[in-house]
Write a structure and sequence with these properties.
Radius of gyration: 25 Å
Number of strands: 0
CATH topology: Cytochrome Bc1 Complex, Chain D, domain 2
Largest sheet: none
Low-confidence stretches: 1-28
Helix content: 40-55%
Strand content: under 5%
Number of helices: 7
CATH superfamily: Cytochrome c-like domain
Number of domains: 1
Shape: globular
Mean pLDDT: 85
Distance between the termini: 74 Å
Order of helices and strands: HHHHHHH
CATH architecture: Orthogonal Bundle
Length: 159
């Protein structure tokens, strides 16, 4: 064999060896954990402070129908007209780096909690003039409690 051919064969052997020692391809994401049962959701709800620990989750879910044209709540869910809300409780307002918030919301310094959210949901434009959120608000206090309780459970809030 000629020295040039030997060099090519040697290089191919090294490439083959390098490929055979490579790391295996990463496994696909593990399947998502099953959704909590209604009984598990009620147990989670019971750990929240009053009045959210007595929220009607079915009513909260029906009230969230007003929100879902703009917001998602699933882990890693998409931002829409409004940001994804998963993990919102305990998070600084305007903290999602992939969403363009109003200057008014960016300037608040709020940490989202049930109290801020309750006031926000009553009438966002009155609570924070300059917000981009066009939602008219929920006047009924019990509907807001139910919606907030639902959001706490569905967005993974840990008291």
């Amino acid at each position: 064999m000629r020295s040039g051919s030997l060099a090519v064969v040697s290089a191919l052997a090294m490439l083959t060896a390098a490929c055979s020692n490579s790391q295996p391809a990463p496994k696909a994401d593990a399947p998502a954990a099953p959704a909590p049962t209604d009984a598990e959701k009620q147990a989670i709800l019971a750990t929240y402070p009053a009045p959210y620990n007595t929220a009607d989750l079915d009513n909260g879910e029906s009230k969230f129908a007003l929100c879902q044209s703009c917001h998602t709540i699933a882990p890693g869910g998409a931002n829409m007209t409004g940001p994804n809300l998963h993990g919102v409780f305990g998070k600084a307002a305007a903290a999602n780096p992939d969403f363009k918030y109003s200057d008014a919301l960016k300037a608040t310094g709020w940490i989202w909690d049930a109290n801020h959210l309750n006031q926000w949901l009553e009438k966002p434009q009155t609570y924070l003039p300059g917000t981009k959120m066009s939602f008219a608000g929920l006047k009924d206090a019990k509907d807001r409690v139910d919606l907030i309780g639902y959001l706490m459970v569905e967005t993974g809030h840990k008291p």
